[in-house]
Specification:
Helix content: 10-25%
Bound molecules: adenosine monophosphate, magnesium ion
Mean pLDDT: 95
Strand order of the largest sheet: 1-19-21-22-18-14-17
Amino acid sequence: VKRDIPAAEALAQILAQTPVLGLETASLGDLLGRVLGEDVRSTRVLPPADNSAMDGYAVCAADCASASDRAPVSLPIAFEVPAGRIDVPRLARGQAARILTGAALPPGADSVVRQEDTERDGERIAIRVAPELGENVRRAGEDVQRGELVLEAGVRIGPAQIGVLASLGRTVVAVHQRPRVAVLSGGDELVEPDGDVAGGRIVSSNSWSIAAQCRELGAEPVYLGIARDTPDDIERRLRAGLAADVIVSSAGVSVGDRDFVRGVLEKLGCRLHFWGVRIKPGFPLAFGRVGDDARGPLVFGLPGNPVSALMTFEQFVRPALLRMQGARRLHRPLVRARVAETMRKKPGRMHLVRVTLERDGDAVVARSTGNQSSGVLTSMIRAQGILIFPAEASEIAAGASAAVQVLDGDFLAAQTPGF
Ligand code: AMP
Ligand code: MG
């Protein structure tokens, strides 16, 4: 077991052990937020045929090249093409066809004159504006060609991707499996949120925040409950998690007399890779894997402190859960921000400073949320970013810049829509 390693080494070890999960199929309605597991090529042409972008009249541009307000060109209306008509006849030279938006362009026509640029006169139409060749026509294939690579494996599926898949008739696609995450809390002082807190008992908030962090990423939490501080109860509950892809346990991995989690994990065949990461908050983080065949669940022993638990999940569990789902991007947006007030610390550990973010013109300004004690859970509510205060640094002067992971892009939300 390695001890007291730097954050970057810890993350590298974790990712080296993290498998990409296999594929399953999912249908259109269930794709939001999943990671695509296949390259999607189009078997269709989109749009499937030349069609009209306007309500108006399909014509041959050469027939109305001289049209103007003062000298409109009058053409007979040969037929109508509502959207959805499939047996569209050929348009002869010197004629116009009434056409509606999305309707197939008749063969023989090459342009559409907007209704607003015409005057109806019984069975004839007077055209007041000469169309450019191809005006108001959406060409077959201008969106997607047959055989074109439209979506690549590894993209996270959002509303636009779902719309494109629907257009291509792909009702079912391959996606990466969701990691199943067994979540264990431990401590004799802990109760569930509706429990009796008399005598200073503590609500197991980690159970809920960690489950939520999993869900936010598309992983499925499986709650193992609160283990009492006895090796037997911890073992019994951890065994139930052995079938999961990941086990996340909070508390009990430190050096206290009743911190049995590490010992039990080893008994269950978990090989610990490291214990202790040079960060604050979050030092007592342990990572290992069950089984020698690189198939057992990854095991994260997070610190019990609610802030430390959220923070170490954010830094170390989150990228692993994303990798498992086949995602290409594992990290939060990173910005350089100007530090509002001087920050100081002792060299040795990297500090993960909870900061609020605000815009100042084109710059981003970061300000500490205040008390950085790992017991102050509300600091995580206010945190819009996590400022990286490097291990060996002892000061970041006011006005200097630092790297900040953006947790919440809402600080960019504007007062106006920008139009
Ligand atoms: P431990 O690692 O057991 O020494 O716990 C460190 C601190 O975190 C203690 O103050 C615990 O009460 C607190 N703690 C441990 N587990 C949880 C949890 N599931 N939810 C909230 N606080 C916890
Ligand atoms: Mg404890």
